[in-house]
Amino acid sequence: MRSRFDAQLDILNNSLISMGALCENAIASAVKALLHNDMSLSKKAIETEVELDQMEKDIERLCLRLLLQHHPVAGDLRLISAALKMITDMERIGDQAADIAEIVAYVDLTDNINKVRIADMAKATIKMVTESIDAFVKRDLKVAEDVIDYDDVVDDLFNKIKDDAIALITENPEYGEQFVDIVMIAKYLERIGDHATNIAEWVVFSITGEHKEQ
Can you say whether the dihedral through the CA atoms of 64, 24, 123, 101 is positive or negative? Predict the structure, then answer.
């Protein structure tokens, strides 16, 4: 019975890795679409949201089967409970990436997007998502804690982008609406960082039994 349970846990881990990779792809596609005004990548990011919605449902069903069939306790119960929480955050990451892609679909920001640090912020948020999932699969408490700390980097980038956009609006009022859109995109990326932080906090819970919100 235990061997069957362990095999199903392996499926859960692999499913979470796949869902995390989809999140990374969604963010990368949305930001590349933004930087290059690429409508095909914008569409890809939006379509990926649908895949993430389905993966959330599939993993949720797997977790419920594990709970009902095996009645796990202690660490195993924490691990499955954490996975159920994590998939909600991953699904919302897909939503935020799709929100970015939808902005790209109706406005061309290529004249102004490189005047702020959106690409750096996107890279930072993808790092957080990747490492939060890695921390869960490898049961690595330090990596999870590092992700939580790294959220400050994303927050600082958001503040810098916001300040830069305000200054650029003053200098170029004719582009004011575009810079407001850019700040909105930065806000979506900040929220992605928050969701990655949530995932890392659930990883900490799955390992230690303690859930410490920032």
Answer: negative
